[in-house]
């Protein structure tokens, strides 16, 4: 009887989860399907033929918009944010393992940007750059704006990681004669490496698709989210859907690559232990 109740509960939860996934990816599936419109297809259903025409058209010179350059800017900006996010989050996690004066105030200041509307931060950074006579650009003001969004998440993740990290491993390494750097390099870093990859991936994805904090700080050249938004009022062909499909596949590829690296690290640790 209990098994029957458990099985019914399992199916109810599974059905609820399936509906949740459908809610998340339902709109995305429409974009995916419409990107395969025929050469004479439009922006709505039904499909007028099936082809890869708009994917080929995506890599040709467009009358409006610059996909390639905006993608390169978003990708470069995401990598910059990822590197800084990992380094600062790691250093903050190590620092907050010990009590120091002003730690509480510093923590609240770090996470405060999460509750401030993104467009306000974007506007504020843009105004500050203009007041100092600096020209806003995606690699300077945009970079800073993205860090106000990604760093708090990275820091909070590393706080959680080090909160569960037992100092017994470090004590054992020191008892065996390891220096502080050797302990960090050969003991701490391998154990937290999967979490650091997660922090980096999280920072990259948050930066790659950020719109609001880039709106007032990107300067003359658009990142990919701004380019897509600007093209929604000009592009009247399914090439925009093809762009959405390609960028989505790119995002999933990055995620799968990160998961593969984490899996390899865990297998390596299992062999060593």
UniProtKB/TrEMBL annotation:
Indicate where this protein resides in the cell.
Cell membrane
List the transmembrane segments: 12-36, 75-96, 105-129, 149-166, 187-208, 239-265
Membrane topology reported for the UniProt record:
Multi-pass membrane protein
Q: Which residues form a coiled coil?
A: none
Cellular component terms (Gene Ontology): plasma membrane
Q: Where is the ABC transmembrane type-1 domain?
A: 71-258
Family note = Belongs to the binding-protein-dependent transport system permease family. CysTW subfamily.
Q: Give the protein's recorded name.
A: Probable spermidine/putrescine ABC transporter, permease protein
Q: Which organism is it from?
A: Sinorhizobium fredii (strain NBRC 101917 / NGR234)
Q: What is the lineage of its organism?
A: Bacteria, Pseudomonadati, Pseudomonadota, Alphaproteobacteria, Hyphomicrobiales
